[in-house]
Automatic annotation (TrEMBL):
A molecular function (GO) term: transmembrane transporter activity
GO biological process per UniProt: chemical synaptic transmission; neurotransmitter transport
PANTHER family xrefs: SYNAPTIC VESICLE GLYCOPROTEIN 2 (PTHR23511), SYNAPTIC VESICLE GLYCOPROTEIN 2A (PTHR23511:SF11)
Protein name per its UniProtKB record: Synaptic vesicle glycoprotein 2A
Pfam families reported for this sequence: LD_SV2, MFS_1, Sugar_tr
Domain of life of the native organism: Eukaryota
Ranges for region Disordered: 1-92
Family in the record: Belongs to the major facilitator superfamily.
Alphabetical list of PROSITE patterns matching this protein: MFS, SUGAR_TRANSPORT_2
Gene3D superfamilies, per database record: E3 ubiquitin-protein ligase SopA (2.160.20.80), MFS general substrate transporter like domains (1.20.1250.20)
Keywords tagged on the record: Cell projection, Cytoplasmic vesicle, Glycoprotein, Membrane, Neurotransmitter transport, Phosphoprotein, Synapse, Transmembrane, Transmembrane helix, Transport
Main location: membrane
Lineage start: Eukaryota, Metazoa, Chordata, Craniata, Vertebrata
Membrane topology of this protein: Multi-pass membrane protein
Amino acid sequence: MEDGYQNRTAFIKGAKDIAKEVKRQASKKVGRGVDRVTDEYSMRSYSRFEEDDDYPPNGGGGGYYRGDSQAGGADEEDGGGHSDSTEGHDEDDEIYEGEYQGIPRAESGVKEGLAGGPSSVGGAGGAQGFGDATGAVAAEAERRKDQEELAQQYETILQECGHGKFQWTLYFVLGLALMADGVEIFVVGFVLPSAEKDMCLSEPNKSMLGLIVYLGMMVGAFLWGALADRIGRRQSLLISLSINSVFSFFSSFVQGYSTFLFCRLLSGVGIGGSIPIVFSYYSEFLAQEKRGEHLSWLCMFWMIGGIYASAMAWAIIPHYGWSFQMGSAYQFHSWRVFVLVCALPSVAAIIALSAMPESPRFYLENGKHDEGWMILKQVHDTNMRAKGFPEKVFSVTTIKTVKQMDELVDTGTDTPVWRRYKLKIMSLTQQVSQGNNFLACFNPEYKRTTFMLMAVWFTMSFSYYGLTVWFPDMIKYIEKQEYESKTKTFTKERVEHVTFNFTLENQVHREGQYFNDKFLNLKMKSMVFEDSIFEECYFEDITSTNTFFRNCTFIATLFYNTDLFKYRFVNSKLVNSTFLHNKEGCMLDFSDDNNAYMIYFVSFLGSLAVLPGNIVSALLMDKIGRLRMLAGSSVISCVSCFFLMFGSNESGMIALLCLFGGISIASWNALDVLTVELYPSDKRTTAFGFLNALCKLAAVLGISIFQSFVGITKAVPILFAAGALAAGSFLATKLPETQGRVLQ
């Protein structure tokens, strides 16, 4: 009885297996016939759609919109892909997982482990040959073909989505990130006059503090640019802005020079990813006819960052009452409040960016169809509702996707969380460190473009940053010369039993004799005593700046609560003299208010002066083209450099600074747009990050070289800047024009 039951069970199971195999073979035959009919119908349907709606042709093969029988990529050779959320779906399942999210079912796709073209046909033999050189070349060629088809279709989809509320919302969100980058450039320059006294900085330390932010941004641009092509634009930007915010916050509280330098370095590393990611991210939501104009409008936030930093410095730093201290070891002066306030744009950008989606182009380039489709639908629906057409339906059903060649390791769900993250980070680090994406920018196809862009970025940055830092230094030098011309000199004076309780400033006393004099509660600024004798004098509560005693003799003199440290006594003799309760640390210079206001005012005007250039470049970018804008602005900037020879006073130098900044900004805007459009999506932020890192390196070189000529000659820096701009404008004409092209 039991044997009969087992035989019957085995028979039923075998019959089911046979029926299942017959059903599968029949489905294959029917499916091939349906595919041929579908392809013909899809082509006709999509062609009619193009004629009715006047959309540009698309290379995806048709059948991407609602109303077609199936997706145009239904053929197994189409090369489409699926998202990770639906990967591994069983053919026998009756419900498509994406239907729970309202995503149309995409029947096409590449089989797991295959490239999706003719090279993938051939079963196990084709899969084994994939690792060979020939198979890799064929797979890469098929991938390139898929990317080209995606580029054409993606442009058509952006046309359907329109330009509206979604893009403008993203514009302001990414503008905050770009604003944070503009603020970072100005922070150290504004706090340096106060920080150098608060932390007793030497000249080499001041120079390093001024350059450290550029070095950090150089590292950050390259690092975050490479990561954005691997893990996504939004995620990379969030991480980079978070690092910037955290270390900007810490830098406002740390007391030592080394820790402050370290925090500003990491803050620069964080914000370094802003420019390459922001422009790439925003460009992937813009249709071709809007891209140049709106990327140029986005550049205005860098200007707003400069204005914000100047205004905050003007309002906060001179207010020395905004400070507190705990003993002599911990001091929190107003410049630290300013550093804290400068982190606010970055924090605001993080909060706003958290509500925005990833770039759909990034998802589609990495085989994640469903995620990309949902975001594009969100863009479409948001814009249509804002325009008063909520009933308008997103007609796209299937989008061409590109299979990711080297995906991050998948450790499964059984592995502990900490180990999964560790393996993913190690895998990501290995992929980035190998530099495959970076080296691909020097492939024969992009090699010439990359080298030309390197030259243009370098020459423009060298001249722009060199001159913009040289301008304020020249203004300071002119002010110093005027100040020194008003110095009063006193020789062989004899002063007895006199109490000095007022400010002493800009004086030189030679061969003087001071007997039983009192210096009480006063400030000494730019005071020099040479070959003088102080006998039975009393110094109490003295605050000094740039004050020195050279070859002086002090006899029975008492110093109480002063900042007259030993380095202020040059070749001087102290006989029976005593120092009691000396002030510790370096005190802030309370007498430089006017000079500080001038620095902030000049920076404010310099930032505001680029507004006309921003407006002109935005309005004309899509009309005259990127190359004409870049080359024309560079030539005019080159000519304007020679007017700097006539800047002999403070007002003249400020006016010329504004003129140069207003003209050169159009070149930067055109260069940003060109760089975005000259590289494909899977290399865009890597290339942009590398070029932006090179830009920061050129800035460091330009600043170092130009500063060395302050007070020596004006001709050499001007000739350097003019020559670099002339070379850059010539090389710019050799770049390919990208106006009117779809985003690669």
